Each structure stands twice: as structure tokens, then as C-alpha cells.
Amino acid sequence: MAAVAAGVGQQWVLVEMVQAFYEAPAYHLILEGILILWIIRLLFSKTYKLQERSDLTLKEKEELIEEWQPEPLVPPVPKDHPALNYNIVSGPPTHIITVNGKECINFASFNFLGLLNNEKVKSAAQASLKKYGVGTCGPRGFYGTFDVHLELEERLAKFMRTEEAIIYSYGFATIASAIPAYSKRGDIVFVDEAACFAIQKGLQASRSNIKLFKHNDMADLERLLKEQESEDQKNPRKARVTRRFIVVEGLYMNTGDICPLPELIKLKYKYKVRIFLEESLSFGVLGAHGRGITEHFGINIDDIDLISANMENSLASIGGFCCGRSFIIDHQRLSGQGYCFSASLPPLLAAAAIEALNIMEDNPVIRTMTIKCQSISGLKVVGESFSPALHLQLEESWGSRENDVKLLKRVVDYCMNSGIALTQARYLEKEEKCLPPPSIRVVITVEQTEQELDRAASLLKEAAQSVLN
Amino acid sequence: STKPDRLQEINHIVHNGGLYKRPFNEAFEETPMLVAVLTYVGYGVLTLFGYLRDFMRQWKIEKCQNATEREEQKDFVPLYQDFENFYNRNLYMRIRDSWNRPICSVPGAKVDMMERVSHDYNWTFTYTGRVIKDIINMGSYNYLGFAQKTGACQEAAAKVLSQYGAGVCSTRQEMGNLDKHEELEKLVARFLGVESAMAYGMGFATNSMNIPALVGKGCLILSDELNHASLVLGARLSGATIRIFKHNNMQSLEKLLKDAIVHGQPRTRRPWKKILILVEGIYSMEGSIVRLPEVIALKKKYKSYLYLDEAHSIGALGPSGRGVVDYFGLNPEDVDVMMGTFTKSFGAAGGYIGGKKELIDYLRTYSHSAAYATSMSPPVVEQIITSVKCIMGEDGTTIGRARVQQLAENTRYFRRRLKEMGFIIYGNEDSPVVPLMLYMPAKIGAFGREMLKRNIGVVVVGFPATPIIESRARFCLSAAHTKEMLDTALKEINEVGDLLQLKYSRRRLVPLLDRPFDETTYEETED
């Protein structure tokens, strides 16, 4: 009985099916038919592997491993490579410096305010050494925050008239950690061609889109900004989440000139881009009190989103700092790689920086830098008149970069033998985005007297004449 | 039965044909299932409350405490994404007082801390002005106790400071190469047993600036899963292809090496220019020691190069304090690039790289740090010189040797006692870094605070430095810790462990850490 019922049930389902078949529209049947044929074709077609891996036997693999020869870990460096043989400085690198055994006047160290040898700075560092020892034995998060660090951060913030400051234990790492903390993959950064290597490494670590504009050329920058604006109009949704930044230096290390900050501020508000300012050379040098390029131009410091500087030039210590509004700076305390994953600054160096800052505040130094080497045949001076770090480049290149470097080395050696310590500006030729031409770096400090400046200028004239003619 | 086999696996005495001259006792315990579930539940509750508070802040029911954008820039693209900061606002902020604790004395075995209170649940802190004195310091990296304000090292550093000043104001290649730096580098080379060495001002920067100088496009980097951020950054900046092998897992490493040589570069099939293996001596979050004899055997078999980062192990391991190479009794010339830092065991700051003369000459010319970064400060250099001489015994005393032995004893004692108490401790028996597992988010804050009440300073670590459910407290032992200090600390840890129910151990040990890892940290730039 149940079997009959089941059989009837089955028949009934079959009838329904046949009915549905007859009632279905034609296109539906054709489509289903095509699909079924396609499935049958796929089932019977040849299978192919996604990766073309020829299956090697074990013996073949071992042979490949035997045969493979790697390159040597490092290529050999020729013995006379200009960057290999360092100058050895015996004793402190102060105004009178002993280089390679010879006493010279120092025109090569970035000791702009002469604070390297200052007795008050040294005694502040000594007091700190007696209290804390040398190292901090930990990063800022794990018992590496000392009261000296907090004091230095407060003092710097007060001096620069910003809300907050954050210090790093290494000058290079300051801007190289600050940029990737804010700018990520997909964001856009407009950066000057002559930006220093630390900025380039920060940009590389950030994985953002980099757009270079010609050095100090505001028209070129505006062109790039306008291009970006038209891109944004095509894709407004993406534009709403893409952050934009401009990275410039106050006083450029590679060219010795300043950036046109008032025009940059105008562009900032017109195109809604944030400005990051790198002030390693201009901190302590520009402005009535040494507050940098913002004071020099009289710009409201809140208009600049982030100011980064290192304490290794004017403050004659080690390390760097960033300052700005708390909204911006506080973020680096958890996402600045050089801050979170690295030991904090040794307290004696922080104490030295605090004392140097005190001295800077009490005696604002107005220095008149005069370039005495305007008329040296064969060499031209690159840099503004008030820049303490200038470059002397060859007026005409003598063929290749190698030849130019050799020539400049002879000029430098001539000067060193006669008691003026100079150095060539060193770059990593293969790593720089826009390699500056070879040059001699000349640093003007407050400790140099008029006679010494005159002597240096005349010596350079002599050297240029004897070497280049 | 399983017990003797497990024991043999863990004590690698006869493993790998006698590569190990001493027992290698490394073990990790599996997370108990109930604890894992409760931890996820804990995070779930915190996340819900986080959403609730964000909702209340958005609708102005609750006052918004964090800093905001300028009025003039409100129409700029927002600098931070809201969800990026969710963890920061709602989870990290609750227990923020466990980190960034300000101290005001030398970071030795005992330290003075500035007391700070918060009246608005950790959004802002105020200093009461009181100083909490003599907290037992189990958090600073002071392995050999050279963080001192008196003694030979400090006196020598003071003399150099008065002679040279604090700064240098120039780079190594320009006018910043002092005679002190040359002296230091010769000494470090002698200490490590290599031909030549070079010193840099920052340990982090040593990795991030020199790995790009050694390898580039067309090279392969094989990096351990748990490598430090500086190694990750250096590998990314170099532009080489990066492949990750499981933590301390030699089978995983061998498989990657074989595949790399046999199949060559992806898509083009060209052979790799060189292969660089990046490992650390001691991994500071796990407390594990690298299986160096096996790594060197593999490196020789497959003709690759080894970069060993001894940030935590130099000075802290080995019978004469010369690091993990000394610990295993191997030849330092087998390691191609020996890198380390001076921050931890030498009480100073900075890093070094040691190796063959060709390598160091190349780095002198092409390292980013030599060309663009200021050289080391002279008093710091003097501290390193004095402490290295002390460890080597060249200052005429046996202080160095005594400290190395004291640290080894302290390590064994501390780890044994903690294991006996029933806590889950990760890592190798000889590693002075001792991670104690907490797991649950609330216990992170509670442990830090309870220990501080009892005058012991500890370091607690949570997400993102560790996987989300594996939060831990990490103790760093020091040769300066006396047995009394350790006993006091152990008594308090025992008390707090009972109070917070931290004694999870069921004594089921496994020799290797086995967890899924995240490859996205190594996404490369498309140039």
C-alpha cells in the first residue's frame, strides 16, 4: 500500500515536472540547455595547473642548490674612495680643531652658536650625569621617561610657542619617523626637490604618493596642486579621505636658501593641504630670537601643522624634536616608530639641550653673516647671505662627477694644510632622488672672528687659483 | 609514553646530530581554552562599551576630552580616521597609567618614580610632587647593572664630557669622526671576535639604515615572524623581497631557502642575487633564544648570509658575556653581520655592526648613517668603552665576570620559582627576559597597578605589541638585583597572582610557538 502510494507520489512529481517543462517559456529552456552543455564541456576539458611548475625531481633540486652562486655580501670598495678615509679629529670638535694631527680653524662643524664648548652647558650635563648615569635603559613607554625629558619638552614647546613638543633620541630619526606617522599609503605628499635625505627616507617609509616640485618654485607647486584638484573632482569620494601634505625645509641643507613660507601658507588654505616644516638648519639661526623661519617671516605658528628640527646643530646636543598643536603631536607618542621602539635620549644630553636653550633665550644672537668669498674665480657660492651653511661649487664641471670630487678634494686639502678645516658635502650618490652637484661645505659660526673669516676667504682664493688653473 | 619524548624534544641534546653543545630548554605553554574564551569575551565587552561611549560623545551626552582640529582647518581632510583611534580612545586610555611612568633617578635595580594621579580617568595626569622611592625595577633593560651614577664608568664619562663636550655637530664622513670613535670601534671588534666594527648613534637606526645598504632589489630577505620593528622597517626600505618564516622554526626556514634557490625570483625565474636571513639573539616579547647552531648550519648549506641582531643578548648571554654566539660556543666568523645595541647591557645608547673588514669598509662608505647622521656623543662613547673593558676584565677587576655570572644565576632562580608557583612563563630557561602571561585585558591594568602599590615596577604589554589575546607582563632581570630583591619581588608576584588568579599553568609544554601570522606587515612599495 505504501509502495503504491510512493509510486503514485513519484509519478505525480514527474507529471508536474513534465508540465513545468511544457509551460516554460522558450528562452528559459534554451538558456538552461546552453548551461548544461557548457557544464558538460568543462567536465571533459583538460585540467590545467594555475602555476606552471615543472615538477623537479629531488636530484634536480639538489643540483640547482649546488650550482647557485650568490653575489658577495658586499662589493669591494676601492682603497682611494673619497668617503672611505675619514678625517680623524683628536679632541673636541670646537672652534680650534685638531684634524689629522694639524690644528685648524673649524669651518666644517655645524656648531652655529658656539655652544659645543660652553662651560655652563657642560656643567649642566655633568650634574645630570652624576644624578642619572649615562643611559636610560629603556624606551619612553617602559621606565625610560625621565623628568629631564618632560622638562625639555615643556621648554621647547614654550620657546617655540606651541602647545606640545616631543623629543627623539636621534636627529635623523625625527622627521623620518614623523612623516610616516601621519601619511600612509594612498595619501599625497608634495615635497621640494632639494629635500634632505632624512625627509626622503621618511617619505619612502610612508608608502604615500610623492610629487616633487622644482626647488622653491611656487608656480610648479601650484600646477601640481591644480592637477590634483582636477583629479579630485573626478573621484570625490576618494578625495574626501586622501590626506595631503607639503614637506619643505626652513633653510635647505643642500642649497642654503630659504623656502617662501608666506606663499606656502596661502597655497595651504587655498588647496587645503597641511604643511610639515623641517627646521634643522634654521632653528636657532633665523628669527629675532632664533625661533626659526616662522619668526623670520612673522607667521602665526599655528598655521604650520608640524615643525621638526634636530638639536644637533644650534643646540650642540644630540637628538631632535617635533612641535605643534597637541592634536598633531600627541599622535606620535603611539605611532612614531623612532619614539616608541627606541631607547630615550640619555639624560645628560637632554640637560645639555635645556641649558643651551636657556643660553639661547637669554642672549638672542643677531649675527650678520657676510660672505667674504664672493669673488673666487672657479668657485661659486651657493646659499643666502644669512645662511650659516653654504656650499662652494665649481663654476663649470670638469667632465665627470668623479673628477669634480677629486678637484674639490685638492682644494680642501690645500686649505687643511694651511690651517682652515673644511669638508666636502657628502652624499650617497646612488640613493639620492635629486643628487646635488659636488661642493665644499662652509659653515659660519658666531665664534669666528673677522680676521679668521678674511683668512679663510683669501686661502680659498689661493687654493682655487693653484688647483683650478 | 609521551612524557620522555616531550622532554627530549624540549631538551635538544641529541637533536640535529650534536649541533648543540648544551641543552636548549625552550618551551611555550598552550593558552588554556577557557582563558582564551574569557579573554575574547572581555574584549567584546570593552568594544561594546567603547561604541556606547563614542555614541555618547558624538551626541554630546559626554564631554569629549581629546584634542580637536583647529577651527580654520575643519574643512581639511581629517588627519586621523575614527576607527584607527578606537582602540586608543576606548581601551588603551583606560590603562594608560601603566606606561610612560616618569622616573627621577638612575634606572638601576631600584628606582624613584614621580607620583602622578588622574582625576578624569587617565585623560590627563597631574604630578602630586611626591616621589615614590626605592621601587624595585623589573622593567629597565639593565642586564649587567651598568646603569650607575657612581663608579669607574661614570667617572670616565665625566672626564670625557668636560674635555669633549656633549655634542659633535657633524657626520662621520665629514668632520664628526673623533679619535674616541675609532678607539671604540677597535675595542668592540676585539670584544666580539670579528675583524672590524662600526658604531652608530641609535640602535633602531642601525638596522633601518644599514639593511638597505646591504641588500636591494633582486635580493631575498628571510625574516623571523617576530622580528623587531627596526628590522621590519630596514627590510621594507631596502626594496628586497621579504618572506617570513615561523618563529624559530628551522623546518620553515629550510623550506623557504630550498624553494627560493630552486624556483628563483617570482615570475622572471632569475636566480636571486643574495639571500639574507634576519634573526635576533633574544626575542624580547617571547623570551626565546634563536637556534643559532641550526641557522648557521642551514646558512652554510644554502650559501646565504646571516644578519644577527643581538640587541638583548649581547652582554646578557654567554659565559663571558659576548652574546648568543658565545652562549652556543660557535665561531663569530660564521655570522656575516653581527649587529647589536649598547643601550641594554652597557648602560649607554647606540648600536654597532661587526664583521669582516670588507663589510665594514663598505658600510663606512655607503651606510646612510655615516653620510647623513650625526656621530655618537663622546661621553656616551666613553661609557661604552669602560663597560666593555669591565666585561672583558681588562680594567683589572673581576666585576664584569661576576656580573655575567650573577645575571645567569638570577635568571635561573627567578624562572624556576615563577614556574613552581604555577604561572605560564614563555621562552628559554637562560633568557633574562621573562614574559609572564596575563591574557585578559583587565588584568593588564590590574597587574601593573597592584605591583606598583607593593613598590615593584613592572612592564605590561598588550595589543598591538603582542597578539590580541596574549597580553603579558615582562620582567627584565639584572645583575644588580640581589637575591633579597628577587625574593621580595617573587613574594609580591605570588600574592598578586593569587589575587588576580594568574596561575594558569597546567604544565603542558610545547617546544615551538604555533600560531597563524600576519604577512601584511611586509607589504612592499610598488616602485
TrEMBL record, chain A:
Q: Does the keyword Magnesium apply?
A: no
Which Enzyme Commission number(s) are listed? 2.3.1.50
Organism the protein comes from: Serinus canaria (Island canary)
Q: What does it do?
A: Component of the serine palmitoyltransferase multisubunit enzyme (SPT) that catalyzes the initial and rate-limiting step in sphingolipid biosynthesis by condensing L-serine and activated acyl-CoA (most commonly palmitoyl-CoA) to form long-chain bases. The SPT complex is also composed of SPTLC2 or SPTLC3 and SPTSSA or SPTSSB. Within this complex, the heterodimer with SPTLC2 or SPTLC3 forms the catalytic core. The composition of the serine palmitoyltransferase (SPT) complex determines the substrate preference.
Where are its TM segments located? 26-44, 165-183
Pathway noted in the entry: Lipid metabolism; sphingolipid metabolism; Sphingolipid metabolism
Query: Which enzyme class?
Result: transferase
Q: Protein name, please?
A: Serine palmitoyltransferase 1
Which reactions does this protein catalyse? dodecanoyl-CoA + L-serine + H(+) = 3-oxotetradecasphinganine + CO2 + CoA; octadecanoyl-CoA + L-serine + H(+) = 3-oxoeicosasphinganine + CO2 + CoA; tetradecanoyl-CoA + L-serine + H(+) = 3-oxohexadecasphinganine + CO2 + CoA; L-serine + hexadecanoyl-CoA + H(+) = 3-oxosphinganine + CO2 + CoA
Q: Write one Pfam family the protein is assigned to.
A: Aminotran_1_2
Matches recorded under Gene3D superfamilies? Aspartate Aminotransferase, domain 1 (3.90.1150.10), Type I PLP-dependent aspartate aminotransferase-like (Major domain) (3.40.640.10)
Q: What is the lineage of its organism?
A: Eukaryota, Metazoa, Chordata, Craniata, Vertebrata
Cofactors needed by this protein, per the record, are:
pyridoxal 5'-phosphate
Family, per the entry? Answer: Belongs to the class-II pyridoxal-phosphate-dependent aminotransferase family.
Q: Which GO terms describe its molecular function?
A: pyridoxal phosphate binding; serine C-palmitoyltransferase activity
List keywords of the entry alphabetically: Acyltransferase, Lipid metabolism, Membrane, Pyridoxal phosphate, Sphingolipid metabolism, Transferase, Transmembrane, Transmembrane helix
TrEMBL record, chain B:
Identify the main location: endoplasmic reticulum
Keywords attached to this Swiss-Prot or TrEMBL record, sorted alphabetically, are: Acyltransferase, Endoplasmic reticulum, Lipid metabolism, Membrane, Pyridoxal phosphate, Sphingolipid metabolism, Transferase, Transmembrane, Transmembrane helix
**A GO term for molecular function:** pyridoxal phosphate binding
Q: Which residues cross the membrane?
A: 33-52
Membrane topology annotation:
Single-pass membrane protein
Q: Which residues form the Aminotransferase class I/classII large domain?
A: 133-493
For this protein, the record's InterPro entries field holds: Aminotrans_II_pyridoxalP_BS, Aminotransferase_I/II_large, AON_synthase_class-II, PyrdxlP-dep_Trfase, PyrdxlP-dep_Trfase_major, PyrdxlP-dep_Trfase_small
What pathway is it annotated to?
Lipid metabolism; sphingolipid metabolism; Sphingolipid metabolism
Q: Does the keyword Transmembrane apply?
A: yes
So which cofactors does this thing need? pyridoxal 5'-phosphate
Which Enzyme Commission numbers does its entry carry?
2.3.1.50
Family stated for the protein in its record: Belongs to the class-II pyridoxal-phosphate-dependent aminotransferase family.
| Protein's recorded name | serine C-palmitoyltransferase
Q: Which gene encodes it?
A: SPTLC2
